[in-house]
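Exam revision sheet. Question 4 asks you to relate a sequence to its structure. Input first:
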Amino acid sequence: MITFARALATVVVLGVALAGCGGSADKPVTPGSPASPQSASPGAAAVKGPPTLAPAPGGLTPVFKRGGPAAGKTVALTFDADMTADQGPRAARGERFDNPSLIALLRRLEIPSTVFMTGRWAEEYPTQANAIGNDPLFEIANHSYSHYAFTADCYGLPRVGGEQMNADVQRAFTAFREAGATNVVPYFRFPGGCYDKASLRALAPAKVTAVQWDVVSGDAFATDAEAVAEQVLKDVKPGSLVVMHCTRSAAPVTEEAVQLIVPELRKRGYRFVKVSELMKH
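Answer key, structure tokens:
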């Protein structure tokens, strides 16, 4: 089975970005406002937003990897919807970076999920971003605009300059807003999972919580759904956060793996939650 790190390296070698989820036809939609924390108007009652972690020492962006003991037998399945800033020509030639049947499966199985979406993906598929971002079963989190690395030597990914990191994240939030998504949470996942103190410091003005994981599914470029399911089932513990992908070409067996994972975890007594619920514990 291909590991997450090897899969990312394969992305670079083959020029394929891990990508997305959603529906099919995409047309511009009326922009909406993301459900990220906003300042209340004078005299208005404060609206409680999604939970976030306090800044780390030195004002660094906090990092969340799994739920605490109070989370109990809960697990968060997360799906990365990746599309790099330079893949527009490939999309124009007909390459699809989506997996609508996976999203349909999550709906049928009633699996609350967090989709870490790049802004470029939301621009390419605004109707899909809108549908995901307005379905209460899902929440959209930020996976950068470009899916470029925020550190040096991150599996060969192109790098975002330190002075551009916050702007890249804000550009993604703008793309979600322009697609009309409303269930948007102030969470960020580093492309490739690569970060350091410099990148955590650069993102401090964005006031996001960085979200990693404690279970690697190994679904990227995998061809054996049973092996992916076995990997997840072996490593899941109460409060786990699983990283997966929803893409037709780069993670072709994820839907089949989910069909194996969900009933077994339910049999074991697990409850599926979004990251925003897991972060409460």
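Marking note for examiners. DSSP finds ten helices and nine strands in the chain.
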